[in-house]
Amino acid sequence: MDTAGLPVRSRLEENASANVCIVGAGISGLSTAYMLARAGRSVIVLDDGEIGGGETSRTTAHLSNALDDRYFELERLHGEKGARLAAESHAAAIDQIEAIVKAEAIGCDFERLDGYLFNPPEGDPGTLDQELEAAHRSGLTGVERVARAPLDWFDTGPSLRFPRQAQFHPMRYLEGLARAFEQRGGRIFTGTHVNEIKGGAQAGVKTDEGREVKAGSIVVATNTPVNDMVTIHTKQHAYRTYVVGMRVPRGSVTSALFWDTLDPYHYVRLQSEGDSHVLIVGGEDHKTGQADDTEERFDRLAAWTRERFPMAKDQIFSWSGQVMEPVDGMAFIGRNPGDETNVYIATGDSGHGMTHGTIAGLLLTDLILGRQNEWASLYDPSRISMRSASEFAAENLNVAAQYADLVTGGDVASAEQVAVGSGAVLRRGLKKIAVYRDEQRQVHEFSAICPHLGCVVAWNPAEKSWDCPCHGSRFDPMGNVLNGPALTGLSPAE
What we know:
Helix content: 10-25%
CATH topology of the largest domain: FAD/NAD(P)-binding domain
Distance between the termini: 41 Å
Structural class: alpha+beta
Strand content: 25-35%
CATH architecture of the largest domain: 3-Layer(bba) Sandwich
Number of helices: 8
Number of strands: 24
Radius of gyration: 22 Å
Largest sheet: 9 strands, mixed
CATH superfamily of the largest domain: FAD/NAD(P)-binding domain
Number of domains: 3
């Protein structure tokens, strides 16, 4: 699997206008762009990187309606109707992807297969029974309990089989989606950083280079909103998840999706790669910026894999990705709270970015075109769920605790202690400084204060990035912004 984005398109070099301007060229942005273009609307897509160069390129591409927040938990938070709409919308997203693949002749290894949820010995033995009953109430009547998942050498114990799940190669799909969008008159501009988003009668976005796109509606599809300082960021929180790819002999592992019930859980699938298969395994999640063992997590994930899949030998790749976890388990797709009515967001993927991104395309198209959609209330970004009050409080207390780093000492006492190719935070008087020493031993210093809401960033040695432990903003070693909600990079140290 390749975690690089697709080749860049041209930059936006002059002012432009469209019915809809979409910020973000990942799965949410391009799904929405394609569906709007198919409905006859003029659409411009802007991205400061490559197409799919953000979190879409870091997905393991499980296309599933077996939601990892569990249907019995979604029932508690959203009622039986909400759980039913969640099941219905994710199933519809898989069907939509399959229909687009066929209609646009996209060669992306799309495949229908079964998924298996199993409970390891250390898990709660009642989880599967609860989930089976809740899944049936949610309309997934094809889900059944089986004696074990189809892994002969690894006894998973009782499992739930979810039929008609799917998988694909996400970047090949995105490439086909972009091509189909452009064939319908859509315009994509990459390498174009947006620094201002404004709704209302004079809606539009402005770029670093002073260009402007005027539009009737704006969609912010940047993994986490970069146009919202506070509201949504109190209702969802950023986690890092880790992935390894292990080569296995063709035919040695059943082609299916596998998940366990641990927290954090493990997720497994196969990808065809030449004459062999690659076992893609994910897990070891933690809150962004709040772990000091990021490199070791890949080792633990590989060890977990080899213990349960003894035919897995060579590790051929690894990466980590960012998952936005809403406090009530469902994505935020719709009008941006507190903003003008023609500004929309898509965020809160909760580990199901490919289906949530496709749901965004279906739902936002209906909202922009003024059509009714039964899913709108479930995904409404303005929703308030009193049943998730404890999760809301716990997550925001965790964020508040991170501000204590403003008054602590640093990771090192001086820049001389920072290793080559590494970074660390030090205290200099009243200030926190992010220090990076490059491969040529040159030292680069930046303010360690995240420009979003003022938390102290932490060095991530696995990704060689500065990560904010409060709301998940990330920056490259030289302080340039990689992930929102920050719109700008770390400022140079004074």
